[in-house]
Amino acid sequence: MILCGFGVGIAILTSASPYLIGNSINLYLASDSFYLYALAGASIFIIAITPIKLAANIYLQKTASQTRFSLKKTILTHVLNTSFGPTVKPGERIELIDGDVDGSMYLYHSLYFDISLNCSIIIVALLITSNYHPLLALAPLSGLLYASIAYLATRKRSNSLYTAYVKDNTVIVGAICEHLYDSKPYTDRIKLDIKNIERLAFRSSLKASTFESISGSCYPVAIVVLFFVSAHLLSVGDSNIGSIFASAIYLERVLSPTMSMISIYYSSREASYRRSRIRSYELQHEGH
């Protein structure tokens, strides 16, 4: 809840500065000396963002470290109190305790901060752009719609991006730890498995990047819409240079968080699988 509050606060400060800058341009063109006060206000908001982000990051790291300790302690207790069959190697248990916890930590705290921040920026940016002129909101909305459609079209294919990689990685970590424990040299089979894991990781990352780039093409779509809408409004005298300038900034303020959230989804596929494995692992051993 506190992290969400930080996200909303940072979003408001981030969105306020372009609004004041746009107004300062209009005031300057109207030969109004109050444009200096608008610029000063924008500068204060920009400066205030840094310490608030720092405070949010400190709180986030502190909370994440507590969660990491709690999760590792819980899983380690299950491991020590549970008898495993011969098929489960000690190295695989290490991967469960260490790799899965560290690999899924983003989903426990940082995710909520990033989503609250990005969603708040999008909402505030759309409201301010609509306040300038409702038609100016068509540009960010068109980009948002395009990115959402592209995301929904590729979402199903991305659900299992890192499943094979994480499973094979756990097995090979177990085999490596077993060889180290027995002081045995790596066999050709182990070396081949390592190469296969690297290949799987590369393919998964490449697919995720491809899916992200499809959604990322929303930028030229939105820019073209903004160009035509701005030309129309200026020709009929329904808008001014300051509003158009601020709308162009807010266009980026809508699309950049949108792409950040889509990127979060694709990049957290591995973390999501690891967290589901932690949960199933805990449930599996609750009854023992």
UniProtKB/TrEMBL annotation:
Domain annotation ABC transmembrane type-1: ranges: 1-270
InterPro entries, A to Z: ABC1_TM_dom, ABC1_TM_sf
Keywords: ATP-binding, Membrane, Nucleotide-binding, Transmembrane, Transmembrane helix
GO molecular function, one term: ABC-type transporter activity
UniProt subcellular location: Cell membrane
Transmembrane segments: 34-60, 111-129, 135-153, 217-235, 241-267
Membrane topology, record value: Multi-pass membrane protein
Entry superkingdom: Bacteria
Primary location recorded for the protein, binned into one broad class: membrane
Entry GO terms, CC: plasma membrane
UniProt name for this protein: ABC transporter ATP-binding protein
Protein source organism: Pseudomonas khorasanensis
